[in-house]
């Protein structure tokens, strides 16, 4: 009985070996398996493609997988905002010694803010241009008129005459932005229209813009921003515009994203738009003074009564500070190779807010309008006093 079982096992093993080694090839076995079990898994199908180079067996998905919640939001933001983002081409004329007048072109982005065809972008995108052309997402092109520029904030307002425009939604001007929140950028980097990138708010800080003027509360992001993105929108996860992409930082000289980009906050842009609407130009409030920032070491050397503040070197003639009776410096001195004027009023607060830098004063100015009255707290010599100043309108000269 046991011998029969042993013989049966030997026969089965020998038969399987003979079939697999002599009668069936590997391809035959695969074909047999495919015939009776065509689905490799519940979500894929094995598809064979035969040709001169042989047979390719490919696992092909039976259906497109469902998008997760994050992907659905990304797609929704892109579809919602892309029709509002435009490609801007500016043409300027440069003089060449051999060829005479030579046209030069630059590209950037912008976004539609109303159905009347107004478009917001960076001033450096269209600066000194003799012709500005706007291309919409549907590839239609229109000649644009420059309505207003604010070089200090690097903003420009254009207008085109086009039908069926879809404006963006601007975020609440004073809505709190948080480091770490998700952001999207849409623009035309290197002329590649309709490109969206994403990242987070990396920081909120004041930086120097392309023209050297300060961008207060600039939004720093790691969303990829490259040449051509300038003037395009930076948006929150709901597709609302929170900033205008304006520049990138790079320590290797490469004119491309290094993960550090900056956007002008929408609150600044809305204030500029408000001035354009009311006055036709930007009315930036100012004390009309030239100043020197003071820290503990310098305060000790000069003999000032406070470790931090802003020393008035000069009051501009006819300006707000002069009219209010603030005093500039009268004693010539030098800090290294830099000439300075000492002996002027030493500002330590404005409207009760401590002043430790010129940026602090700029922040106060951004919260006011031309014609507003502010209380400036100064030390005149060793005596502390308050001076009421009616803010004037800034001119082209660098001042605060």
UniProtKB/TrEMBL annotation:
Domain called PDZ: residue spans: 291-382
Biological process according to GO: proteolysis
InterPro entries associated with the record: Chloro_Bact_Ser_Proteases (IPR051201), PDZ (IPR001478), PDZ_sf (IPR036034), Peptidase_S1_PA (IPR009003), Peptidase_S1_PA_chymotrypsin (IPR043504), Peptidase_S1C (IPR001940)
GO molecular function: serine-type endopeptidase activity
Domain of life according to the entry: Bacteria
PROSITE patterns attached to this UniProt entry: PDZ
Keyword hit for Magnesium: no
Keyword terms: Hydrolase, Protease
Annotated family: Belongs to the peptidase S1C family.
Protein name: Trypsin-like serine protease with C-terminal PDZ domain
Organism name: Terriglobus roseus (strain DSM 18391 / NRRL B-41598 / KBS 63)
Lineage: Bacteria, Pseudomonadati, Acidobacteriota, Terriglobia, Terriglobales
